[in-house]
Amino acid sequence: MAWIYLTFAGLLEIVWAVAMKQSQGFTRLTPTLVMIVTMIGSFGLLALAMRSLPLGTAYTIWTGIGAVGAFVVGIMFFNELVSPMRILAAVLIVSGLVLMKMSSSS
Predict the structure, then answer these.
(1) What distance in Å separates the CA atoms of residue 5 and residue 42, rounded to the nearest whole number?
(2) pTM to 2 decimals?
(3) How many CA atoms lie within 13 Å of 75's alpha carbon, on the beta-carbon side?
(4) End-to-end CA, the chain
(5) From the CB of residue 16, how many other CB atoms can be counted at a distance below 10 Å?
(6) Helix (H), strand (E) at residue 11
(7) Are 57 and 104 in contact (CB under 8 A)?
(8) Pseudo-torsion of CA 76, 80, 84, 86, nearest 10°?
(9) Contact at 8 Å (CB) between 55 and 18?
(10) Mind listing the pLDDT tens digit for each residue in 23-56?
């Protein structure tokens, strides 16, 4: 169950990061509220996952999902730069996540 919590925590991290971007510096109410609610949900699910997963594993996976997810959303919806170096960086992050999962005993 911890891995499911962690996965959803990471997905909510992507949502709150996008909502933060859309809030335009917290000047737009709806995206700001979406950000706050999803941030609380993300932290809550991360805390549940950390009941049985090691701190380093849980936090690394959580931030990795958020980082790569935000990277993909930025490219798809915000016309952010796609370059070989940025793609390589994302691939390396995902590789690190896979290795972290494989090294976890939980």
Answers:
(1) 9
(2) 0.88
(3) 11
(4) 10
(5) 23
(6) helix 2-22
(7) yes
(8) -100
(9) no
(10) 999 999 999 999 999 999 999 999 999 999 999 9
